[in-house]
Design goal:
211 residues, mainly alpha
């Protein structure tokens, strides 16, 4: 009987001692989540845009890979805008965590694409023209989404559309000068312009979100 009482007392004492540890763990998790602010998420997106643009410029990423990554960034922008609209322009801790996880996946994809291209840079061939068109389509979608969500003003959208029209005009001129094809130099120049346009869209959308 005494052994049973002693065992029950010991179990209760251990449970009481464990309570602060559980509380500390929860507090640590909450503290970590609180450090993820909207500004931190935005800075990370800016950095990812820089990495994508530089990756194309340096040959670490193909234009096709950049187009897919930009599509993922566009999807993430839409989700973030929808979340903010529900909560008066703010993000909950759970929403910040979800966005962070998606940013992690995009970062992992960037690294994977770069590793693939370290082994082979032969993906810049004949499919490049279609890839450039896909990048342009993705950017048009981002502009339209920005206007719809209110992240872009009409004047910002008009300027971005003007930039897109200029790029399209240059593509047509380059093709006309080379029998309907684009030279390697033409493709590199167009992709550099698309990189700049992608950054302009991203910066304008976030500036619009702060208005």
């Amino acid at each position: 009987m005494k052994s049973a009482i002693r065992f029950a007392w010991l179990s209760a004492a251990l449970a009481i001692c464990a309570l602060p540890v559980v509380g500390q763990s929860a507090d640590a998790s909450a503290a970590a989540s609180s450090k993820v602010t909207g500004q931190v998420l935005e800075q990370r997106q800016d950095k990812q845009q820089d990495v994508i643009a530089n990756g194309v410029k340096d040959g670490k990423l193909t234009a096709g890979e950049a187009g897919k990554l930009e599509g993922q960034e566009n999807k993430l922008d839409r989700e973030e805008s929808a979340m903010k609209k529900v909560d008066d322009g703010h993000l909950t801790a759970a929403e910040k965590e979800k966005i962070t996880q998606q940013q992690d996946r995009i970062t992992d994809q960037i690294k994977q694409d770069e590793r693939n291209n370290e082994r082979s840079n032969e993906k810049q061939g004949a499919t490049q023209t279609g890839v450039i068109r896909q990048r342009e389509d993705n950017q048009q979608d981002r502009i339209a989404q920005g206007v719809k969500s209110g992240a872009l003003s009409a004047s910002e959208a008009a300027q971005l559309e003007k930039n897109e029209a200029k790029i399209n005009s240059e593509v047509r001129s380059d093709r006309a000068a080379n029998g309907g094809k684009l030279t390697t130099q033409d493709k590199a120049q167009i992709n550099n312009q698309l990189n700049h346009q992608s950054m302009q869209i991203h910066q304008a959308m976030h500036a619009g979100g702060r208005r």
